[in-house]
Predict the 3D structure of the following.
Amino acid sequence: MKFDLSMVAVLLAALAPAVVLFLATVWDRHQRKRTEKPPQTTKLLRPPGHSLSIRLEKTYDSLVDSLLAATFFSAFSGICVVWFASLLGLRAQLAALTFPLVIGVLLITGCVWFCLRVLHTFKSAQDIKLGLRGEQAVAEALNEAAEYGFRSFHDFPAAEEWNIDHVVVGRCGVFLVETKACRRRRSTTTQAAHEVYYNGESLRFPHFTTNKPIDQAQRNAKWLSNYLRNKTGESVEVFPTVVLPGWFVKTTEKGNFRVSVMNATYLSGFLRRQTEKIEPSQVRRIITALDEKCRTVEF
């Protein structure tokens, strides 16, 4: 058996579309950054889930890169297999067989690694998309609260490493809203698959119990209160709230809890039932401070 160049040519031809796609993608990214400019310089307020949408874009870019890399490794490993088979047909010596064998094993390993990375990246993208849809669902509920004099800010950038999902301001006070979007699974207990039990300290889902959202909301509310006090020169109480889109929250204990927990459909009514706590002039100063911090999106 002689070394069949035609088979190698077929493999290279199969690889050509992936090469062209990769080069076109790189060129397009470069051209957009170099030539495109926004039509206006005024920055916009951050939309719901802004940070998550950026993460989702980066995750999809990483997914495409991993797919292309897996394609390259697969094609070149196929060439090595053809090379190795041709040398076997020519009854080549062991030394001659070692090189294509080692290179082929390395390429196949790389292909498997990138394939696993594709699966992991795809799962991450699905989780990010779930969180993004959750924040959008809460933002939709907050649109109804605007009828009662509330102003909402989304994806408030507290620091480079973290953000606050939503901040709601009105005569009835300042409310911090943290969104937690969780998938439902078939329940294996007496607790319904769509129910969450809240005892004032933790959330009990059908398959796990956690107090992290409660602690996070309270911690972020304290940070926001300090931030607004420093910006406005006035004491500002921030009321922490956790919203679970799509879940029915059942309270298992009585009392005034440090954090309110509810479904997104109850959020507008919850805000509407609050009593007035702050003067209109202070509301305006708080809105100005929040607007200044949250207006970061380039057109």
The mean pLDDT is 87. The longest strand covers residues 164-170. Helices lie at 5-35, 50-89, 94-145, 212-232, 264-272, 280-294. The chain has two domains: 5-131, 141-297.
